[in-house]
Amino acid sequence: MDKVLILDFGSQYTQLIARRIREVGVYAEILSGESPLEPARLEGVKGIILSGSPHSAYEAGAPAPDPSVFSCGLPILGICYGIQWLTLSRGGKVERLPEREYGRKQVHISSPDPLLEGLPPTFTSWMSHGDSIAAPAPGFQVLAESEGGIPAALRAPAAGIWGLQFHPEVSHCEGGTRILENFACGICGAAKEWSMAAYLEAERASIRARVGGEDVLLLISGGVDSTVAGAFLLETLDPDRVHLLYIDTGLMRKAESEEVMLNLRALGARHLHMAEAEADFLSRLAGVESPEEKRRIIGDLFIEIQEREVARLGIPEAILVQGTLYTDLIESGKGVGTKAQVIKSHHNVRSPLVEKKRAAGKVLEPLDRLYKDEVRALGRLLGLPESVVGRHPFPGPGLGVRILGEVSKERCDILREADAVYIAELRARGLYDRIWQAFSVLLPVRSVGVAGDERKYGSVLALRAVVSEDGMTADVYPFETKDLLGISSAITNKVPAIGRVVYDISSKPPATIEWE
Ligand code: XMP
Question: Which of 344, 372, 394, 468 best tests ligand 1's pocket when mutated (most atoms within 8 Å of CB)?
Answer without folding.
Answer: 344
